[in-house]
Design brief:
The complex is a heterodimer of chains A (532) and B (180). With 532 residues, chain A is of the alpha+beta class. Chain A is built from 11 helices and 15 strands. Chain A is 29% helix and 30% strand. An 8-stranded antiparallel β-barrel of chain A has the order 3-6-7-9-10-12-13-15. Chain A has a two-stranded antiparallel ribbon with strand order 1-2. In chain A, strand 7 and strand 8 form a beta hairpin. In chain A, helix 2 runs antiparallel to helix 3 and helix 2 packs antiparallel against helix 6. The radius of gyration of chain A is 40 Å and the shape is elongated. Chain B has 180 residues and is an all-alpha fold. Chain B contains 9 helices and no strands. In chain B, helix 2 packs across helix 3 and helix 3 packs across helix 4. The chains are: A alpha+beta (532), B mainly alpha (180).
Chain lengths: 532, 180
């Protein structure tokens, strides 16, 4: 006893010797601390900005795409204007030719009427953008062209069409027209050829500004510019004279011009595929199972509950013989994870089922990061490596009181989870102009790849799939996503789709004394190509 | 106490002036602590720097139940231990029997100021230095030290005994020098 007391006094003397000791550190120490703190603050900013940069990059991509599309469209419009100008000039030429050809007493009109035709041709060529230039053929039925002198006025406007009037130049212009509908493969006919092949009496374009059908039974929508009236071959013969009096121009156009939205809707399933990346927040949602134990001494391979034992309060326990582990919240032992910005990448595929519905699937690689802290480390008995101890690596490392060491200050731990996910969704889509709004519930099969546990102070531990792993090789989650697609150009769309995944089955298996039902929120940015 | 809490609160907000104030308040004392665990001033300053960065990053976790001085001191000690942790694993240790053959006698240290004692501590082998500090000056038990350093309790005891023996030799030598 005396020896122990003597020893204590020896140690007490040492303690007293250093009790009030002070020694100024170099001024550089504070400078370095200041720099390090500043760098960390910058790093936080950087991490925050990374997400915003990703969003900004997506927006820039959208804007660039829109700009490109607008410029392309503008070029097309300019081309059409040029073509219209050519058409107008040619219309003038045609009109001039007609004037000379109509210079016969029986069929002639006065020069004023001839000029009216020319002016109207010019005016129409200007007004009917994208329509008249494709069918700048002024057809006049042979029936009408052979009118009696009583019908001079109408015959002046409904003369026998001259095939030669449709000059080669004009045909070229029409054939090269860049209006999409003319490129439709369903209509492999060129406008010019159609105009010359089709019976002239079958298809008429009747500009409403220049034509009044009066009491005709033709449906009202045929009055619109570009509307097509399919009339029987002999209809003009049956029309009363008043009808023909008001008809000033009749245009022959290919039948495919009447292809409308209804026809498009009748098209079969459309397949689509795309690429996407999603900034995500992942919560493994670890939950304890069973009541927490109160002593580190009960640490065993099944004992995640042991994580509830706090590290010994080292200074507070000075002089006491026994450990007094305080039972603290389990959050201190790595169960509570805070989500860090993570990313997933993948491909999407799917096909439409009618106007509004589509089936979608894909393949995503998910690399999720979370952060937690632990007051323990565990030493691998074989390699001697020291790892931060969290519930996930307790089983694999056979954590017991023999190889678990408390550390005074909880260590920050990066918890990284990797999955391959295969979603299957049914989507309801609503199209508004170029935008498609989508709502798509579904399920996803998630294949667990790896859980990497690392910290700055200790070695990194990797938990894979296998008998020692507390994780199932896969789990199923429900998901719901809704988003918006913007059609940049034909076939190509940009997408912005927030999604929420929630576990339907447990990620952890029976060997784990904790449960995990992960949740993920992601904001998927991508583009999609639709196959015709 | 309220001033200290207010200072801590400002530090948590990230006010650099408050952080500097807290640093200047405790840096001189913590420098000595760090020096006791390190072999050189440079090492000690590295540990001190790392420790204070941890302090500022972890201040949100500080609970006012204990003194902030002891909280910071714990961080400095842990940082120093982590700094040398791998070396600690490799400590050669003596058998328990061997322990009984040394350290039976102590030397008087009251004639020495803390700088002299610091120099003596820094000449000890790393393992002995750490364990002597933890046991004799910080007041930990051998079992606590064993758990902290992931060594056996026997190793802790033997290292401590060896430290005392070496200190005795060093003091005897320096005493002879001192007293001519």
């Amino acid at each position: 006893m005396a020896n122990a007391s003597e020893n204590r006094s020896y140690e007490e003397r040492w303690r007293q010797a250093f009790e009030q000791a002070e020694m100024p550190p170099s001024p550089n120490v504070w400078k370095n601390i200041d720099q390090q703190l500043t760098a960390q603050e910058g790093g936080k900013y950087k991490r925050g900005f990374f997400f915003y940069r990703a969003v900004a990059a997506g927006l820039l991509l959208c804007i660039a795409g829109l700009g490109w599309y607008t410029i392309t469209r503008s070029d097309n419009a300019n081309t059409l204007t040029d073509q219209q100008q050519v058409g107008t000039e040619q219309a003038d030429q045609i009109a001039a030719n007609r004037e000379s050809q109509l210079d016969k007493p029986a069929l002639s009109t006065d020069s004023d009427e001839g000029s009216t035709v020319t002016e109207q041709s010019r005016a129409l060529a200007t007004k009917e953008q994208g329509i008249t230039e494709k069918a700048e053929v002024q057809n006049r039925t042979s029936n009408l062209s052979q009118n009696t002198p009583d019908e001079d006025q109408s015959s002046a406007t409904l003369q026998q069409p001259k095939v030669n009037d449709f000059s080669e130049a004009n045909q070229k212009v029409l054939a090269n027209s860049s209006i999409p509908i003319l490129d439709n493969e369903d209509t492999a006919q060129q406008p010019g050829s159609v105009a010359t092949r089709q019976p002239p009496s079958k298809t008429l374009i009747i500009p409403d500004e220049e034509v009044s059908l009066g009491s005709s039974s033709t449906p009202a929508h045929h009055h619109q510019i570009g509307g097509v009236a399919s009339l029987p071959p002999d209809v003009l013969e049956l029309l009363p004279p008043t009808w023909t009096e008001n008809v000033e121009k009749l245009y022959l156009v290919p039948q495919y011009r009447s292809e409308t939205k209804q026809d498009k809707e009748k098209k079969g399933a459309q397949f689509f595929a795309g690429l996407a990346m999603a900034p995500s927040l992942f919560d493994p949602n670890f939950q304890p199972q069973g009541a927490p134990a109160s002593s580190l001494e009960s640490f065993d391979v099944l004992g995640v509950d042991n994580f509830s034992a706090s590290p010994p309060s080292l200074l507070a326990n000075r002089g006491t013989e026994d450990y007094s582990y305080n039972s603290t919240s389990i959050e201190e032992a790595g169960l509570e994870n805070s989500a860090s910005l993570s990313f997933s990448y993948g491909v999407d595929i799917g096909f439409t089922l009618g106007k509004h519905w589509s089936i979608e699937s894909g393949l995503d690689f998910q690399n999720f990061r979370t952060e937690t802290s632990t007051p323990y480390t565990v030493v691998d008995v074989q390699s001697g490596e020291r790892y931060p101890l969290v519930p996930a690596n307790a089983v694999a490392n056979q954590a017991t009181s023999a190889n678990v060491t408390p550390i005074g200050l909880p260590s920050e731990v990066n918890n990284q989870f990797q999955f391959i996910s295969v979603p299957l969704q049914i989507a309801y889509n609503v199209q508004v102009n170029r935008f498609v709004f989508s709502l798509s519930p579904g399920v996803a099969a998630n294949l667990f790849l790896e859980n990497r546990i690392s910290s700055d102070q200790f070695a990194s531990d990797e938990i894979g799939r296998g008998s020692n792993s507390p994780f199932n090789s896969q789990y199923v989650s429900g998901l719901i996503s809704g988003g918006v697609f913007y059609q940049l150009i034909e076939h190509y769309s940009l997408s912005l789709t927030p999604s929420y995944y929630f576990a339907l089955t447990n990620l952890t298996n029976d060997t784990a004394d904790f449960s995990s039902q992960p949740q993920t929120f992601g904001l998927k940015l991508g583009f999609r190509y639709t196959f015709e | 106490m309220q001033d200290e809490q207010a200072l801590v609160a400002r530090c948590i907000k990230g006010e650099r002036s408050a952080q500097q104030q807290l640093y200047e308040e405790y840096a001189r004392q913590m420098m000595v602590v760090s020096m006791r665990y390190c072999k050189s001033r440079e090492d000690a300053e590295d540990v001190l720097q790392e420790a204070f960065v941890k302090v500022f990053n972890s201040l949100e976790k500080f609970r006012s139940e204990s003194s902030i001085k002891y909280w910071i001191k714990r961080i400095v000690i842990n940082t120093a231990l982590n700094h040398h942790r791998k070396k600690v694993y490799l400590y050669p240790h003596l058998d328990i029997e061997e322990v009984h053959h040394i350290g039976d006698e102590d030397v008087e240290i009251s004639n020495y100021n803390y700088r002299d004692l610091l120099s003596i501590l820094q000449t000890l082998p790393q393992g002995c230095q750490v364990i002597f500090n933890l046991y004799a000056i910080e007041g930990y038990k051998h079992k606590e030290i064993a758990d902290m350093l992931n060594i056996s309790e026997g190793t802790s005891k033997s290292q401590y005994a060896r430290a005392r023996s070496l200190i005795k030799d060093l003091i005897t030598e320096t005493g002879e020098v001192k007293h001519g």
